[in-house]
Amino acid sequence: MILSLSDLGWSSHFAAQHAADPTGLPFRITAVHRDRLIGLSPDGEAPLLTPGEPTGTYAVGDWVLTDETGRVRHLLDRRSLLQRRAAGTGATAQLIAANVDVLFIASSCNADFNLPRLERYLALAHQAGCYPVIVLTKSDMCDDTESYVQQAGALAPFLTVLAINALDPADIEQALAWCPKGQTGALVGSSGVGKTTLANGMTGQDLATSGIREDDARGRHTTTARALHRMRNGGWLIDTPGMRALRLLDARDGVDEVFSDISELSLSCRFSDCQHDTEPDCAVQAAISNGVLDPARLERWRKLRREDQRNSASVAQARARDKAFGKMVRGILHEKKSRKGL
Fold first, then answer.
1. Model's pTM, two decimal places?
2. What is the CATH number assigned to the segment(s) 93-239?
């Protein structure tokens, strides 16, 4: 099958950057390995080499320009970027996917369903500039699917929520309709929610699936690396490993977008810096007293704001330290060169 750059997701946004280096060969990153990248162009897939920086600088979905040998010359500015604070104790950012139009947030109609987790993913989508679509899987195994749909839909106005059986072709078509030809979707969610089965239905591939534990509806990781796959309708899907924890990073605007009801209420508070606690004339506390706002939702908003501030500050500090260390090393090398020239 012959694909054009437009089929791969190329747009005027990238064409304008290509004009500055018209001899560069455009590739879209389909996989990121420790020592190389895999890129896709209208001529097919090819291994790509980076010009010195670690491959972690790149994300699946990125566009790059290379020379004729397959060495990357430029990473093109992204239209969107999904990232989180990396797991573990280190203060580093982990890139999830780039140039994503639609974020498919998978949950399931069983014990895995978790509203706070869905709010995190929605904040991730809004911060990146992606359109969020919540996909509730395993609807065929649930006696009260509509209850799950209503709970998820109440998280934000006009939120798209699909309840599907990932083995039903008609249900898969509902999801595909939100990411047509030339656009890119990313699929995120916990292990065991049926992400791989959903991805199989959307792409027509036969990726391996694994079972779940009956006691808590959680499963093992099936997808172990991010990859870009062509969907049956001509769109593209970035499948991601299941995430036990999504630690938000630089996502304050995304959090406020998800909790826009609280943000709007706070505009009517007497004090512009109201903490919505014991201050007089607090519109948020008044809404709680009147039964308009769930106090648990306010606590979740506070938790995400605190967490994002803490994670963002830690990563910023780590970057500053790395920058200072790099500057010191360059200074020492420059001094050594100067001495040799004497």
1. 0.82
2. 3.40.50.300
